[in-house]
Design a protein that fits this description.
Number of helices: 2
Oligomer: single chain
Strand order of the largest sheet: 1-2-3
Largest sheet: 3 strands, antiparallel
Helix content: 55-70%
Order of helices and strands: HEEEH
Strand content: 15-25%
Shape: elongated
């Protein structure tokens, strides 16, 4: 059971981590920074700033660092 959970976490880990990093992917269009995946959204203004700071950054910490650390600790215990 433990190995199954760890394998499933590592299967979804790259996609979720990439999704969290995508919220920080901005491109310069005509002198304005826009979110690469949704060019109608201006980077670091309004909802994008809130989304990035309160969802994106904690998501990177939890999924990017927390899941591998959790898996390491569980495997080390067994």
């Amino acid at each position: 059971m433990v190995s199954t959970v760890i394998i499933l976490l590592f299967l979804v880990h790259p996609q979720i981590t990439q999704y969290m990093f995508d919220s920080f992917n901005c491109v310069d269009i005509d002198g304005e920074l826009r979110v690469f995946n949704d060019l109608e959204v201006k980077c670091w203004e309004g909802a994008h700033k809130n989304w990035s700071m309160f969802v994106g950054l904690p998501g990177i910490l939890v999924w990017g660092i927390g899941i591998p650390l959790f898996a390491f600790l569980v495997l080390r215990q067994y």
